[in-house]
Each structure stands twice: as C-alpha cells, then as structure tokens.
Design a protein that fits this description.
heterodimer, B: mainly alpha, 4 helices, 85% helix, 0% strand, elongated
C-alpha cells in the first residue's frame, strides 16, 4: 500500500545538504574575495584551504542534519516531499550558479 | 604509487560511481520489495565510490597538482585552471554531500512510499549530470596540460 511518508533523517539531512551546499558556495566567494583574511586562515588551519573547506562542509552537514532531526521533541522537521525536493534541487542549481558565475567573472 | 596511476583511478572510480547512481535511479523507477536491498546496497556503493574519488583525487590535488597548474597557467589554456579546476574542486564538495545523502534517502521503504521514491530519484538523478561535469572538467584539464607541454616544447623550454 502506497503512503506519502518520508523518514525524519531523509528530511533533516536533505535540508542539511541544501543549507550546507549554499553555505559552501558562499564560502568559495568569501575566501576568494578575502585572500589575506579568510583564505589565509583556512590555509593555516589544515595546510590547504580546500581541505579546510571540505572539513567545514562535512561538519556542518552532519551537525545540521543531526540537529534538524532532533527538533519537535525528536520527531524532526516536518515538510512535504515537494518542499524537500525543491530545496535539494534549488540548492544544487544555486550552488552551481554561484560557483560557476563567480569564477566566470573573477 | 605512480602519480599517473592515481590520475587514472580518480576518474575511473568517479565513472563507476556515476553508473551506480544511474543504477539506483533506474532500479527505483521499477522498485519492488525484491529490489529494495539491492537499491540500498548500490546507493551505499555509490557513496563509498564518491568518497574514494574525493580522497584519491584530493590527495593528488593537494600534493601533486602544483607543477601541472604551472604548466596550464603558462600555456595557451589558462582558463582550464582558472575556471574548470576551480569550479571542479568546489562543486565536487557538493557532490560528495549529495552522494553521502543518497543512502540516507534510500533507507526508507521505496516500494511503499511514493514520496521516498521521489527524493531518491531526484538525488540519484542529480548525481549523474554533476558527476559527468566533473569527468568533463578533468578531461579538459588533461588536454590543457598536454597543450601546455607542447607549447613549452615549441617555445624551446
């Protein structure tokens, strides 16, 4: 029998992916526009800015996904499947446009 | 290990991961109780392969890319680094998260939940073109190195 249920981790980590993806794209613009500040700090942290960038993304994805699954007394964020898919697809499109657009104009 | 072998393993794993994502997409379109565990296993395989692609490619990028970057930047195709490498290294981080999310999305009962199927179809469906764009960028970078070396040779370098 069909149902319209999606698991709380599917929603929480889907939203976490969407948020982390856009934050990551914005971090690209921030670090490349601020070489002596943000980029230098990211290089100093692990030896390479890209390694630090990856770590920030992974930590944010896991922490946000876990935190969003704990809201509403542990039931997680409630959202329609169309809303979730829109967030995921929208985040991919926005992230690619931000990153590609920045390097096209940079 | 020979750096060139690393450069072969990186896109090969990425290519197999793309096929795994395509497998999940097609299998989900025709899902039944019998195919549930296979879809879950292939979605995990896809995530593992993207992680291996990330680790191996990342190692090469951080440790060995600098000389090739200099060849590309000094050759006729500097845009290969300035645009394709820069976008590849950052869009890949999004792909890594998307592939990590795929097994989470596929963990529900896809046979009975239309909503769960919809999420998996979109996620697997997004992984395929993004992965292919990574492969294409890598091919452009390889050609840019070749052109850069030929240019250097023609200049008497």
């Amino acid at each position: 029998m069909e149902n319209s249920e999606i698991g709380k981790y599917t929603v929480s980590f889907g939203l976490s992916f969407a948020i982390t993806s856009v934050v990551s794209a914005l971090l690209v613009i921030l670090k490349e526009s601020n070489e002596e500040g943000v980029l230098a700090w990211m290089k100093a942290l692990t030896g390479h800015h890209w390694v630090t960038h990856g770590l920030i993304d992974l930590i944010l994805f896991v922490v946000l996904g876990w935190a969003l699954s704990k809201v509403s007394s542990g039931q997680g964020v409630k959202m329609s499947v169309n809303g979730l898919v829109s967030c995921i697809v929208g985040a991919v499109v926005i992230s690619v446009v931000l990153i590609d657009g920045f390097y096209l104009l940079h | 290990m020979d750096n060139n072998v690393i450069l072969l393993i990186h896109p090969a794993l990425g290519g197999i991961a793309t096929l795994a994502a395509l497998w999940v997409f097609v299998d989900t379109l025709n899902v039944s109780e019998a195919s549930l565990s296979r879809i879950k296993n292939v979605s995990i395989l896809c995530a593992v392969l993207i992680w291996l692609t990330y680790i191996i490619g990342g190692y090469w990028y951080v440790v060995h890319y600098a000389p090739e970057k200099a060849i590309i930047k000094g050759g006729p195709w500097p845009f290969a680094h300035d645009f394709f490498m820069e976008t590849k290294e950052h869009v890949f981080l999004m792909l890594l998260l998307l592939a990590t999310y795929l097994p989470i999305a596929a963990s529900g009962n896809l046979a009975t939940s239309k909503a769960a199927r919809k999420v998996v179809l979109w996620v697997a469906g997004l992984i395929v073109p993004v992965s292919l764009s990574m492969e294409s960028s890598g091919a452009i970078l390889s050609i840019a190195v070749k052109i850069g070396l030929l240019f250097k040779q023609a200049q008497g370098g």
